[in-house]
Amino acid sequence: MNELRNQSTHVILDFSCKDLDQATEHFKNASEVGDTEYGRTYKCMIHNTKVAIKLSSSQRLFQQEVSILRQWRHPNIITFIGVCSKVSALVYEWLPNGNLEDRIICTNNSPPLSWYNRTQIIGEICWALLFLHSNKPTALVHGDLRPCNILIDANYRSKLCSFGMSNLFLQPGTFPPNLTARLPYMDPEFNTTGELTTLSDVYSLGVIILRVLTGMPPLTLSEKVAEALESDSLHLLIDKSAGDWPYIEAKQLALIGLSCTEMTRKKRPDLLNEVWIVIEPLTRKPPAATWPYLQSASGDSSVPAAFICPISMEIMKDPQVASDGFTYEAEAIRCWFDRGNSRSPMTNLALPNLNLVPNRVLRSFIHEYLQQQQQQPNPAYQEQLSKT
């Protein structure tokens, strides 16, 4: 953390109103990509560089955010390029994959994040919070940690943004805007005491972990996950669109997410000594899938996991091995390539090539398996069998 902080000094550019006006074509609506309580955001080009320009909703918010971003740089905190103080505008790097909220709900029919991507993102958020909380002499608290304030770059790496709003919450007589959307992520003790601490961020992180794991709405999510763990039915809550989650990893994430969302701060884990030591090992090379069962889109829970395409979540008819070593349904992986993707759907690493090799052995096993099911009909298979 200290090494990162020592390397964090960087030049902040001063832009004129004319610079921003030309870049956005007089702030045309066509350039606008966001309008929130933080301000309006525009996508444009400045000096042949694609950037995002945010017109802050207030001078105070602008000053708070600049004071934080001007000091530090971190791989998982949005890169701050410059300002135009006259119109309270901040200029950031442009991240093409939107925010984590959009990726969780697959806005505009975007492909779902793989379980490996999701684990990496959780680790990156945790690392960025450790950096903020280790600030001396006073820890920096984000205070508004939500999926919509976590941006995703072209390589599906995450970066925190929207700093400073939390400080406005503490002003006398003020209330957080858009409270309904914020409430599920807000520290319950903050709601009663008005005090933000690093453990407030830990609570928000816990909700995000459970959200990324399940894909479910945040309200009462911790209660649902706790019930699922108690009844040994966690597999029913896991977001199947993410692929075949390793069982041990999924359970670890569920447990650490629940511990972070304890109602009282004194019961929440320490971010470094209790949360990071669990999450950091999970961000390394992905382990082999170890779910004891996998529920396919057809509703059957006893189909061997190796027979399921990790993209379509259906029994494969024409299994093909991609250059990442994983096997996919031919039509699903070709559609993945046709959308311009050149990275593995499972690991997000760049594929050496887009070649496919038929997995004839697996295809033979699947064919034999389906024949057995036809000889011993089971109503749960009828729709799937009719497709194959």
Automatic annotation (TrEMBL):
Residue ranges occupied by any Protein kinase domain in the UniProt entry: 27-277
The protein's annotated pathway: Protein modification; protein ubiquitination
Keyword Transferase: yes
Keywords linked to the UniProt accession: Coiled coil, Transferase, Ubl conjugation pathway
The EC number(s) this enzyme carries: 2.3.2.27
Record's catalysed reaction(s): S-ubiquitinyl-[E2 ubiquitin-conjugating enzyme]-L-cysteine + [acceptor protein]-L-lysine = [E2 ubiquitin-conjugating enzyme]-L-cysteine + N(6)-ubiquitinyl-[acceptor protein]-L-lysine
Record-annotated U-box domain positions: 302-376
Molecular function in Gene Ontology: ATP binding; protein kinase activity; ubiquitin protein ligase activity
GO biological process, one term: protein ubiquitination
InterPro entries linked: Kinase-like_dom_sf, Prot_kinase_dom, Tyr_kinase_AS, U-box_ubiquitin_ligases, Ubox_domain, Znf_RING/FYVE/PHD
Protein name: RING-type E3 ubiquitin transferase
